[in-house]
Each structure stands twice: as C-alpha cells, then as structure tokens.
C-alpha cells in the first residue's frame, strides 16, 4: 500500500494536469457511478489526505479515491488512446478524466466515491493528523498513539486514525531509527511525540522524491535500514535483519533483533 508521500506526489501530478482546466470527457467504470457525467465542469483542485486522494470539481462535487495495494493514477496526453478494459488486461480503467491537454486514468482503483464536497468528512474525517498536511499536530498524533497503551507500536503507527500517511515501509524504518521493537507495547515505546515528529520529518524529506529514503542514500538498494532486507546484515550492527507477519490483515514486519531488542513483556 503506498505511503503518504507517494500519494502526495500523485496529487501533485494530477493537480498539474487537471486543476484549473475544464473537463471535456469523463467516464466512471464503476456500477454505482456509471451514469455520472462531469464534462463541462472545472477541476478546482486536487488534495491528498494521508493515503486518500480528493479531486474537487465546480458544482460542489468531489471524487474520492484510495489506491490500497494495486490502484494507480496515470496521466497521458489527451491525444493518446484510452484503453478499453477488455483489451487492457490487469490495468483495467475505473475512472477517466479528460481535458483538452491531458487524460487522467484511474487504474485498478478499489475505492471510487463521487460525493458532495460538503460531505468529504464522511470519507476522511476519521483520519488522524496528516503528516504532510496543514493540520499536522505532533502533540495530537502522540496523544492518539498513547490512547491504546497495550497495542504494539508498529500496529499503532499503521492505524491512520492516529496519524495519516505511515505505511509498511515507514513503520519498519521509524521503529528502527527510534531503536524500538515494532512489537513493543505503545506504552513501552518511549517518547511518542519524538516518534510522531520523526515520521513527519521523514515524509517531508521524501515528498518530492521516490523511494522513501531513510538512510540518506537514494541509490537503489541503499535507501532503507531494515525494510525489505530480511536475512541481510543490519547496516548498524551486522546482525541479520528479521522478517515476520503481524496484524490483521497480516503485514510484513522487518526489524533488527539487536538494535531493536524484544520488550520484556510480550513481543518476540
């Protein structure tokens, strides 16, 4: 599932292609919105909210999408062919938004909601402070994390109700950088404000580049401390990085058992 900085970048690409332009053609290939037609409306803006995307149109309408594991948005010239789903294989199109210069294709989107702009809180109001948003508040994020003291800190970081934008990559990297086992209880995880602040700084540092770089080295294979490095030496101590599945649904966890020792109570 994409991290918050990836969605921030997607919003930027869509904003550049769509914002301030009038749509000449739209196509919603989802049953509940199959008859919707936004042709003639102006795209007023595109915003990311954690891992959610909001495209706002004149007339008080908003398109809400979430990529989850497989969705993506692709921008192409308006003159390029729009594929039909029968011929496009796995990259089936769910949404088409076209103006005179560009076409934005929403591919494999698992979540497509067309709603009133006034009702946006219905789909994003549950989210915690947005790590890349104007509402970022480390104190509030720390308070929300602390509200479930017995919960594993790795699971608490993934909960978008606590802070919006952390995915599996940052879960692994933040815990490593704070020298905390991802299986430690939240009340064993030390300074939660410092954890929230680190998450904010990590996403801000990567919001204009790919790779979710946490080591300071953007070269392929050098971007992460533990994420995706199971069985390889820890960059800090040389111990083999470990891998397990945790949570519901199960998500892969990476950690160094030496730099991130198991907590005295629980953990592994």
From TrEMBL:
<dbReference type="GO" id="GO:0140078">
    <property type="term" value="F:class I DNA-(apurinic or apyrimidinic site) endonuclease activity"/>
</dbReference>
<comment type="similarity">
    <text>Belongs to the FPG family.</text>
</comment>
<dbReference type="InterPro" id="IPR035937">
    <property type="entry name" value="FPG_N"/>
</dbReference>
<keyword id="KW-0378">Hydrolase</keyword>
<dbReference type="GO" id="GO:0006284">
    <property type="term" value="P:base-excision repair"/>
</dbReference>
<dbReference type="InterPro" id="IPR015886">
    <property type="entry name" value="H2TH_FPG"/>
</dbReference>
<dbReference type="InterPro" id="IPR012319">
    <property type="entry name" value="FPG_cat"/>
</dbReference>
<dbReference type="InterPro" id="IPR000214">
    <property type="entry name" value="Znf_DNA_glyclase/AP_lyase"/>
</dbReference>
<feature type="domain" description="FPG-type">
    <location>
        <begin position="225"/>
        <end position="261"/>
    </location>
</feature>
<dbReference type="Pfam" id="PF01149">
    <property type="entry name" value="Fapy_DNA_glyco"/>
</dbReference>
<dbReference type="GO" id="GO:0000703">
    <property type="term" value="F:oxidized pyrimidine nucleobase lesion DNA N-glycosylase activity"/>
</dbReference>
<dbReference type="InterPro" id="IPR044090">
    <property type="entry name" value="Nei2_N"/>
</dbReference>
<feature type="domain" description="Formamidopyrimidine-DNA glycosylase catalytic">
    <location>
        <begin position="2"/>
        <end position="96"/>
    </location>
</feature>
<dbReference type="InterPro" id="IPR015887">
    <property type="entry name" value="DNA_glyclase_Znf_dom_DNA_BS"/>
</dbReference>
<keyword id="KW-0227">DNA damage</keyword>
<keyword id="KW-0479">Metal-binding</keyword>
<keyword id="KW-0863">Zinc-finger</keyword>
<keyword id="KW-0234">DNA repair</keyword>
<protein>
    <recommendedName>
        <fullName>DNA-(apurinic or apyrimidinic site) lyase</fullName>
        <ecNumber>4.2.99.18</ecNumber>
    </recommendedName>
</protein>
<keyword id="KW-0238">DNA-binding</keyword>
<keyword id="KW-0511">Multifunctional enzyme</keyword>
<keyword id="KW-0862">Zinc</keyword>
<dbReference type="InterPro" id="IPR010979">
    <property type="entry name" value="Ribosomal_uS13-like_H2TH"/>
</dbReference>
<dbReference type="GO" id="GO:0008270">
    <property type="term" value="F:zinc ion binding"/>
</dbReference>
<dbReference type="GO" id="GO:0003684">
    <property type="term" value="F:damaged DNA binding"/>
</dbReference>
<keyword id="KW-0456">Lyase</keyword>
<dbReference type="Pfam" id="PF06831">
    <property type="entry name" value="H2TH"/>
</dbReference>
<keyword id="KW-0326">Glycosidase</keyword>
């Amino acid at each position: 599932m994409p991290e918050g900085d990836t969605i921030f970048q997607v919003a930027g690409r869509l904003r550049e292609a769509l914002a301030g332009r009038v749509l000449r053609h739209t196509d919603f290939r989802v049953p509940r919105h199959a008859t919707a037609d936004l042709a003639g409306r102006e795209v007023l803006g595109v915003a990311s909210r954690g891992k959610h995307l909001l495209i706002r149109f004149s007339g008080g309408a908003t398109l809400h999408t979430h990529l989850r594991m497989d969705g993506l948005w692709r921008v192409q010239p308006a003159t390029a062919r729009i594929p039909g789903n029968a011929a496009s294989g796995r990259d089936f199109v769910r949404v088409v938004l076209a103006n005179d210069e560009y076409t934005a294709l929403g591919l494999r989107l698992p979540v497509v909601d067309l709603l009133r702009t006034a009702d946006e809180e219905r789909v994003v109001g549950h989210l915690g402070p947005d790590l890349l948003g104007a509402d970022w508040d480390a104190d509030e994020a720390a308070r929300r994390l602390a509200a479930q003291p017995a919960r594993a800190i790795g699971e608490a970081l993934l909960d978008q109700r606590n802070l919006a934008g952390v995915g599996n990559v940052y879960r692994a990297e933040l815990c490593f950088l704070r020298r905390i086992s991802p299986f430690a209880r939240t009340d064993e995880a030390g300074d939660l404000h410092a954890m929230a602040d680190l998450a904010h700084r990590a996403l801000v540092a990567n919001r204009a580049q790919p790779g979710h770089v946490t080591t300071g080295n953007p070269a392929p294979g050098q971007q992460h401390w533990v994420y995706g490095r199971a069985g390889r030496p820890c960059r800090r101590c040389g111990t083999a990085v470990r891998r397990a599945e945790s949570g519901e649904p199960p998500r892969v966890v990476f950690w160094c058992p030496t730099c991130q020792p198991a907590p005295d109570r629980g953990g592994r």
